[in-house]
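Lab notebook, bench 4. The sequencing result for the construct came back, and we need a structural model before the next group meeting so we can plan mutations. Quick request posted to the team channel:

Model the 3D structure of this chain.
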Amino acid sequence: MHDIAVELAPPAPLDPATAAACLTLLDFETPVWLDTAADSDEVRAWLRFHCGCPLAADAGAARFAVLAAPAAMPALACFQLGSEAYPDESATLIAQVASLETGEAVALSGPGIEERRDFRPAGVAEGFWKQRRELEALFPQGVDLVFASGASLAAVPRSTQVRF
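Done. Here's the predicted structure in token form:
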């Protein structure tokens, strides 16, 4: 988890960390899908102006997704998972959660994590971690995850193993 020192005033319902992730990752070549909670005229206009990104009407057509209400998100299999030849064509999901420290704990391990690390994002969909664990069998295919809350970010790349 990393606290960002940035003062942004994105349109509701975006948190500063969600907005910072969008400003960092999105551009004119990266179609983005907005969940129902994030899909407003203000958010669409802000993303177009600041990122120049095209908006995808379908989650499966997007390289990025902004999930302002991840508890109601579609199944992970609805997003681009890439292919064995082109795993980089998978989607990155930016999930805005209520907290990065008060949810049900999952244990993360893998590259970049010494032994194991507990992670507790609050507000993900029921069965989310089970779906994410099932995608491990497809590696190098999968989805990359960025969790945002307030002014904090945490990333869970597809190479990370999840246990609960």
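The chain has a mean pLDDT of 96.
Will bring this to the meeting.
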